[in-house]
UniProtKB/TrEMBL annotation:
Domain of life per record: Bacteria
A Gene Ontology term for the protein's cellular component: cytosol
EC number: 1.-.-.-
Pfam families the UniProt entry points to: PNPOx_N
Keywords, in A-Z order: Oxidoreductase
Lineage: Bacteria, Bacillati, Actinomycetota, Actinomycetes, Kitasatosporales
Name the record gives this protein: PPOX class F420-dependent oxidoreductase
């Protein structure tokens, strides 16, 4: 299935990952469409990365920058996977095309290499 239109047009989504005990944990994230999938950038030591290592199932909804989901927003079931270095670079470029702050952060990293922080991309796909 392709990316739901409400999600593709959104500037932020609430990405819900699940703990081993099944408890949901929602996090607001930026996203960028990349073909038939969404890409998200995160810190490799983040909780969502740890949770995705044991379960790839995620739920997402359109949200504001603080993760507040409108009461009438649909929830979408999806699968997330961690991307490798090469795919993560391509995902970062997709995010930079969409968000000025990502471009500015990348510029600062090139000018001041000591400010560089590692990151990893997630690819989110929707069921057929």
């Amino acid at each position: 299935m392709s990316i739901p239109p409400d999600v593709a047009a959104a500037r932020h989504i609430s990405l819900t990952t699940y703990r081993k005990n099944g408890a949901p944990v929602a996090t607001p994230v930026w996203l960028a469409p990349d073909g038939e999938r969404l890409v998200v950038w995160t810190d490799p030591a983040s909780g969502k990365v740890k949770r995705l290592r044991h379960t790839a199932h995620v739920t997402l909804s359109v949200s504001d920058s603080r993760g507040r989901v409108p009461h009438d927003a649909p929830r979408h079931q999806a699968t997330a996977q961690l991307l490798g270095v090469t795919e993560s670079r391509a995902a970062r470029r997709a995010l930079a095309r969409r968000y000025l702050l990502v471009r500015l952060t990348d510029l600062a990293t090139r000018l001041l290499p000591r400010t560089a922080r590692p990151g990893i991309a997630l690819a989110i796909t929707f069921p057929s």
